[in-house]
Amino acid sequence: MAPPTDAGQSGAGPSNAELDLSASYGTIAAARWFLPVGIVVSAAAAGLLGAALGADPLLVVLVPLVPLGYALAVIDGRTRLLPRRLVVPTTLVVLAAFVGEWVATGDLEVLVRALAGLAIARTGFWVLWFLGAGLGFGDVRLAALVGLVTARLDWQAFVVGIYGALVLVLLYVLARWSATSRPLRGDGVSLGPFLVLGAWVGLLVGALSN
User: Fold this and answer.
1) What is the pLDDT of residues 88-121, one digit of tens each?
2) pLDDT band at residue 26 under the 50/70/90 scheme
3) Are 197 and 73 in contact, with CB atoms under 8 Å apart?
4) Residue 157 CA from chain centroid, whole number
5) CA angle 17-196-48, nearest 5°?
């Protein structure tokens, strides 16, 4: 089944016809807390990754990805949408960077592992989306990017990043259920923030274990 032509729903939220996406994104970006919180969170997250990874060239890719991840997490949490215009070009740029790394170093194993991570993550989340597990296709696209980046480091980072995100979602759903005593449907959860957090934790764990 081909992917939908939407902007990247993270779940079964309102249709694009019911949303003024440019206004939604503009409102989020204009919020007084968005930029200062983003600076603090991005600086802390990038700093910890830098300290853990050291001189790994992966940092060249990760540093700009950190504020992007923050923006995607906030957008998805507020609108239930993961904009394709951000996720897809970013994935292509990161992929091109890894191909360039292979050309420069001749280390084909690293590139193959990164591509395998992308394929495994995208396929797994595509299956969940196809089966109606409450995911949107934006989650499939973002999972592919997470798989690409985490597998570039190592398989431990990939496993922690992808499956850690799913565990975090489960814990969140259980906590919400405990607090409200009402079941929370899968399509009532924005998965993007958990994928971003899972990716960061996976990269940190992978870097510290090397």
Assistant:
1) 999 999 999 999 999 999 999 999 999 999 999 9
2) confident
3) yes
4) 14
5) 150
